[in-house]
Specification:
By secondary structure, this protein is an alpha+beta fold. It has a domain of 293 residues: Cytochrome p450 (Orthogonal Bundle). The chain contains 15 helices and 14 strands. It has a five-stranded mixed beta sheet with strand order 1-2-10-7-3. The chain has a three-stranded antiparallel beta sheet with strand order 4-14-11. The longest helix has 32 residues. The structure holds protoporphyrin IX containing FE (HEM). The site of protoporphyrin IX containing FE has 26 residues, from helix 11 and helix 15.
């Protein structure tokens, strides 16, 4: 994979997308005319957030829509909840092995990699089992104490003792918690957490000038940051081989698949995946959750008076925010979805964030309701690659919001929300708030 947009060739400057109807000659497709760059241009996501209006139109008029956006390989936008579930259930037919982010036009085919999220069956299962035991509900309950400790430390540092103060909520609260948890699980010592923070920001945010060094292109940024992350984990893996501890890196060095230890590359890719997948996503669920409450204060008050609703509230935050907009699958064979012909080799973009507002899957989907039940959102994907960290992410969210509910006496937005330039990660870069916290 890459959790960040994969750059197999540099997208270059912004170009205007074209209407697609005329280009769908050989294939059945919709007659809906729209600018496909709305679905994939990182700068537009930074400017306007998710394109919910366009997704709603696509769900209604062209749920399987052929898209050509300048700079990208053509793809099908899949926007309905039922279709995304159906595709995700068929991991052999709809492959992850060629990358889970949209390929750029002219990009070379991706070399096969051994990273969990890009393995198809039957190789995927054994690789997942190597680390899965650390992420089951039981294992996460076992970690609760540590999640609690890190959360309290963060809240204590941000406390204002009754005075009004201002902060960037992302930097102060939302980022440190997942960073601390992921680093602790892997065995990265606290002195290196800042380094992890910078490197993941650069990998995920390489399309955003704020995270690039002067003179770097996005592909240079991601290459350099990945190189640094690699070096870091090469050293950590060597240290844990020599002196195993209780952490995931030590466990990975001792793991076997079919009687063989993981190769150095497999080990490195596992570490990178956990760092990239576990950080930014949870950070954005936390910051997006607070933003949702700032915009729906009655729901905050409802939760304060009914704290038992926290589990439902966490899932509603996850549905509402949908930190991952979409991932890609590639069809391994010719097939049909809703009567639309898909050719082997075609890319399908599974818009989880659109599925989470699907009128056929949720009552009143554009309402943020902390007591929503049922709530079968697709925020963590579905099927074979269902997020391995889902229970952990839920534990982090409920812990931090439980403490915020108890200690936050007042909060409101103190300036514009700044979003990351990324079409995959619906990230909030800065969330300025005025607040008072005991
Ligand atoms: C709110 C937070 C999170 C969101 C929205 C999220 C989202 C996702 C999604 C959509 C997938 C599916 C990928 C696909 O189908 O191609 C996924 C997979 C994965 N996630 Fe998460 N994730 C979150 C938190 C975490 C955490 C905390 C960790 C670990 C520390 C984690 C580790 C993984 C891993 C290892 C996979 C790959 C699973 C596989 O391929 O079998 N995630 N995540």
């Amino acid at each position: 994979m890459r959790w960040s947009d994969e750059l197999r060739s540099d997208g270059g400057s912004k170009r205007v997308g074209r209407s697609l109807a005329a280009e769908c000659t050989a294939r059945q497709c919709n007659l809906l005319s729209f600018d496909a760059l709305e679905l994939v241009d990182p700068d537009r996501f930074a400017l306007r957030g998710y394109p919910h209006d366009l997704w709603a139109q696509l769900r209604a008029e062209a749920p399987v829509a052929y898209c050509e956006a300048t700079g990208f390989k053509p793809f099908w936008a899949i926007t309905k909840h039922a279709d995304i579930m159906d595709i995700s259930k068929q991991a052999s037919k709809f492959s992850s092995a060629q990358g889970i982010t949209l390929a750029r036009a002219g990009a070379r085919p991706m070399p096969a990699v051994d990273m969990l999220v890009m393995l198809d069956p039957p190789r995927h299962g054994p690789m997942r089992r190597v680390a899965n035991a650390r992420f089951t509900p039981k294992a996460v309950r076992f970690r609760n104490e540590e999640v609690e400790r890190i959360a309290i430390e963060i809240i204590d540092t941000a406390a204002t003792n009754g005075a009004d103060s201002q902060c960037d909520f992302v930097e102060r609260i939302a980022a440190p918690l997942p960073l601390g948890i992921v680093a602790w699980i892997l065995g990265v010592p606290p002195k290196d957490w800042d380094l992890m923070f910078r490197l993941t920001n650069e990998v995920i945010g390489k399309d955003d000038p704020d995270f690039r060094r002067d003179g770097e292109t996005p592909s240079q940024t991601i290459k350099r940051a990945r190189g640094e992350l690699h070096h870091y984990f090469v050293d950590l893996i060597a240290a844990r081989r020599a002196d195993p501890q209780q952490d995931l890196v030590s466990e990975l060095t001792q793991a076997e698949i079919d009687g063989e230890p993981l190769t150095e590359t497999q080990l490195l890719q596992y570490c990178e995946l956990i760092v990239e997948a576990g950080n930014e996503t949870t950070r954005n669920a936390i910051s997006g959750g607070l933003l949702a409450f700032a915009e729906h204060p009655a729901e905050w008050e409802k939760l304060k008076t009914n704290p038992d609703l926290l589990p439902e509230a966490v899932d509603e935050i996850l549905r509402w925010v949908s930190p991952i907009s979409h991932f890609i699958r590639v069809a391994n064979e010719d097939c049909e979805i809703r009567g639309v012909k898909i050719a082997a080799g075609d890319q399908l973009a599974l818009y989880y964030a659109s599925a989470n507002r699907d009128e056929d899957a949720f009552a009143d989907p554009f309402a943020f309701r902390i007591d929503r039940r049922p709530n079968q959102h697709l925020t963590f994907g579905f099927g074979e690659h269902f997020c391995m960290g889902a229970h952990l992410a839920r534990a982090e969210l409920s812990t931090i919001f439980r403490h915020l509910l108890a200690r936050l006496e007042h909060f409101e937005l103190a300036g514009p929300v700044e979003r990351l330039a990324s079409a995959v990660n619906g990230s909030i870069k800065r969330l300025p708030v005025t607040y008072r916290m005991s």
